[in-house]
Each structure stands twice: as C-alpha cells, then as structure tokens.
UniProtKB/TrEMBL annotation:
Name the UniProt record assigns to this protein: FAD-dependent oxidoreductase
Gene3D superfamilies in the cross-refs: FAD/NAD(P)-binding domain (3.50.50.60)
Pfam families in alphabetical order: Pyr_redox_2
InterPro entries xref list: FAD-bd_OxRdtase, FAD/NAD-bd_sf, FAD/NAD-binding_dom
UniProt record similarity statement: Belongs to the FAD-dependent oxidoreductase family.
Record-annotated FAD/NAD(P)-binding domain positions: 2-286
UniProt key word 4Fe-4S: no
Keyword terms, alphabetized: FAD, Flavoprotein
The organism's taxonomic lineage, starting at the top: Bacteria, Pseudomonadati, Bacteroidota, Cytophagia, Cytophagales
Needed co-factor(s): FAD
C-alpha cells in the first residue's frame, strides 16, 4: 500500500506511525510545507521565551524517520487529482497514492480589519510566524494582542518574557468568555495583573494604524481609544486549512467533511485532525476539533481504517489542559461557561485566589458528575474520566476527592474545607470524607 499523508503535524505523524506498526510493508510518505521534521506546535512559545531550542521541540531525532522507512518530503502540495490518485507538488512533481490522508491543520483566522497587512501585524500558528515575531518584536516597547483565548494569553506571556509591555483586547466581559465560567476567569485575571499585562474587556479592535513606512504604530479600539504599539498579535482563532482540498472534488464546509470513519466524500481520501469537520458529531460534541490530543486520537483511529479495519472515531470524555502564566488549567467532561439547566455546580476556591475546583453534576436523582475544572491544582485524568463515564454520584466523588489529585499533600490540607463548603452549599447531598488507605496514591 502506498499511503500519502499531507501534513506532518501530530495528526499526520500519529497516523504514519500507527500505519507503520500495523502494516510494516506499507510505503508511507509525509509531505509538509512548513518543516522538514515534525515538531510540537504547542511548544512554540517556549522557543521564543528561551526555555527551549527548536531541536528540543522535535519529539524524534532526525534519523528516526529513515530508520522507520518514513519518506519525508518538504514541499507544498498544490493540487489533488482524486480521479488519477495523485497529488502535485509546487515544483510540478507528482506523488501517486493508494490511500491519501489530508492532515493539513489550520490557519490563523483574520477578520479583515483595516490595517491588518501593516508590518508588525501577525498571528501565531507555525514556524514562519515564530520567526516573524522574533524579528518584529526585537527592541519594541509595547505590543497589543487581539483575542481573549488560549493563544492570546500565550502571546501576552511571550511578550512579557522579554520585558515588552502588553495590552490584550477581549471582546467578552471576562477572559475566554466562551469557555470559562466567570470565577475561573477571575483567577486568570489575577495572573494578568501579577504579570502587569493590561486587559481591556468588552473591547474590540476597530483599526490598526500605521506610519508612513507601513509599520504599525497604534491600534484604535471600538471604545475609541488609541493604544500606541509597535506590534499587534492577532489571536482570534483558527480555521481549517482547505487550500489543497479545495483544488479537488473533496466536499468541504468550514472544514473537510468526514464521516465517523474519517472518510471524505471521495473514495480513498481521508481527513483528520484540525482540518476535518465531522458530519454528525455526537451529542454535545463539536464538529471541528482543534486540539493536540484529538489530533493524535484521530490520527490513530484513521490509521486503523486505512489499514483495513474500519474504526469509528470516538473521542470519549472531553479533556483539555493549558497554562495561563503560572496557573495550570485542566478540564474534563462538560463544564460550560454559563449554568446549564438540570446541572448543579460546586465551586471551591482557595483563599489565595490561586487554586479553584469546579465540579458539575446532574440535579436529578443519581446526581452523576458531568465535569471538572481545575485551576492551580492537577487532577488525575483516568480518575476523572472513570467518574464521569460511570456516572458516579457527587457524594461519592466528594468523599473520595483525594483519589483524583496529583498532589495528595495539598488535598490533605484542603479536602476538609472543600467538603465543608460543599455540605453548606448542598445540604441535601451532605457527605463525609473517607480517607481509604492507599487511595491518594492510586
Ligand atoms: C501556538 C499554539 C499553541 C497551541 N497550544 C495548544 C495546547 O496547549 N493544547 C492543545 O490541545 N492544542 C493546542 N494548539 C492546537 C494544536 O496545536 C493543534 O490542534 C494541532 O497541532 C493540530 O494538529 P494537525 O496535525 O491536525 O495540524 P497541524 O499541526 O497544523 O499540521 C498540519 C501541517 O500540514 C501542513 N500543510 C498544510 N497544507 C499543506 C500543503 N498543501 N502541502 C504541504 N503541507 C501542508 C502545514 O504547514 C502544517 O505543518 C495550539 C496551537 C497553536 C498554534
């Protein structure tokens, strides 16, 4: 089998490695326009901040690919001819395939603001962006970041690490308003304050202003303010990269449309990861998943189907993690930003404002837990997922909270407080702590 994969991100590489394991004889070729070798996109910020060098964010040594008979092609795939089963590269070379996986990822989304093409205005998605940011933030005093999501806070932290002042413009009334409940967002705010990053809520970008040389000099906000800056980071989300798919008959919408086997509308062509849009997402799931771990799962799943074992993609319990300056964040299951009908929510916060724990559970008898948000403390993924999948009652979860924690010492100190607060808030579910021997270290 000749397998051609476009994109060497986590999705493409996971698919390649899985196929190599399942089909030792397969001919596997990975094409990428961005880099010769796979690297961890999520670690880009650490290169800018000087914590890591580029070679440190490549999970595999350069010899690994040859050793595993994975052919790497550093080129742009410009055209897909699905009828003739080949892809054309920018230099005219044609690569034939028996099966093709489109794992083309995303591109930064831009909203067509006046001035967005000025020098010093950019998004952060890949290595060319990192190089551009490296160059255009050298020696500057102030940068403005547009967007209150994960990349927005990363950009602010990157600027801060080099002593560059930062202002973040956030459309919502609080940070990451579409995802975080206000209490959790306040903890993130504290991080912004401690790191002297100015955040303007309910404020959008109106216009980017340039000087005579075409270099950004300020932004104007929808509130009418002008903020002087020498660099603007656009962090208003990403959108599936459809450039190659759109040269073919492969059906697209916002992403490349796929069924549960991650098959596109064209035979022998699959799509997975950030670029794929699920035709029928399961209840409560989003059609386009733009996460590292879902890319890995989709890459692994599609590899089985490609190798002849049709395997539907099942994401399982939702999970995500991030870091806002010094504040770690994890989420499991469903924890929407706003209260949901039929769901009760328990929120505990440490007096320091540096740790928060939210647990959602059904209001109806059974009182099954449905989701967890943890900030400043680390939960054990396997325990939380088991509790959610098994529809464990909230009382049982509260009485065994320590089982989910990575830091038993912290829990020993605060578990009693959490449970006492829970009992005050939900006297009908009042519970007692149980410290079963060994539970903390499971
Ligand atoms: C700065 C940043 C931080 C992030 N942090 C997190 C995080 O903390 N946690 C998390 O879960 N997710 C995070 N993400 C999202 C996560 O990185 C992505 O969901 C994931 O990398 C997507 O993997 P992928 O393999 O589907 O696509 P990609 O990693 O985008 O790989 C696709 C590759 O295909 C190449 N390509 C596209 N078209 C062509 C073509 N025509 N020819 C040749 N090559 C082509 C692209 O250049 C790219 O290299 C972050 C993203 C960014 C940008």
């Amino acid at each position: 089998m000749r397998l051609l994969i476009i994109g060497n991100g986590i999705t493409g590489v996971t698919a390649a490695l899985t196929v190599r394991r399942l089909r030792p004889e397969a001919q596997i070729t990975l094409v990428s326009e961005e880099s010769e070798h796979h690297y961890s996109r999520t670690a880009l910020m650490y290169v800018y901040m000087g914590h890591m060098r580029y070679q440190n964010i490549k999970p595999y040594e350069d010899w690994f690919w040859r050793e595993n008979r994975l052919t790497l092609v550093h080129a742009t795939a410009t055209h897909l001819d699905a009828a003739r089963q080949h892809v054309t590269l920018h230099d005219g070379q044609q690569l034939g395939y028996d099966k093709l996986l489109l794992a083309t990822g995303s591109v930064s989304r831009a909203a067509d603001w006046p001035g967005q093409h000025l020098r010093g205005v950019q998004g952060l998605y890949g290595l060319p962006d990192l190089a551009r940011m490296e160059q255009s933030t050298r020696g500057i005093e102030h940068g403005v970041v547009v967007g209150g999501g994960l990349i927005g806070v990363e950009l602010a932290e990157m600027l801060h690490s080099r002593g560059i002042g930062a202002t973040v413009l956030v459309r919502d009334a609080h940070y990451w308003g579409s995802v975080l409940p206000p209490a959790e967002a306040r903890l993130v705010d504290q991080q912004f304050e401690e790191n002297h990053v100015a955040v303007r809520y309910q404020t959008e970008l109106a216009e980017i202003l340039g000087d005579a040389a075409g270099q950004v000099r300020a932004v104007r906000t929808t509130a009418g303010d002008e903020i002087a800056c020498q660099w603007v980071g656009l962090a208003t989300g990403v959108t599936p990269n459809l450039t190659l798919a759109n040269t073919s008959a492969v059906e697209t919408d916002r992403g490349i449309l796929v069924d549960e086997l991650l098959q596109t509308s064209v035979p022998l062509v699959y799509a997975a990861g950030d670029c794929a849009q699920h035709r029928q997402p399961a209840h409560g799931e989003v059609p386009i998943e733009q996460l590292w771990y879902t890319g890995r799962m989709q890459g692994e799943t599609v590899a089985h189907t490609i190798c002849g074992t049709p395997t539907p993609y099942r994401r399982g319990v939702w999970f995500n993690s991030a870091k806002f300056f010094n504040l770690e964040y994890q989420t499991y299951g469903r924890v929407p930003a706003r209260p949901e009908a039929g769901i009760d929510t328990f929120y505990w916060e440490h007096a320091s404002g540096r740790q928060g724990l939210r647990i959602n559970f059904r209001s109806a008898p059974g009182f099954a837990v449905t989701g967890f948000n943890a900030l400043g403390l680390r939960l054990r993924q396997a325990v939380c997922e088991t509790w959610i999948t098994a529809q464990t009652p909230i009382q049982e979860v509260m009485s065994h909270l320590g089982a989910a924690n990575f830091d038993p010492e912290f829990y020993r100190q605060h578990e009693a407080d959490m449970v006492a607060q829970f009992n005050r808030q939900f006297p009908q579910h009042a519970t007692v702590l149980r410290h079963r021997k060994g539970l903390f270290f499971r």
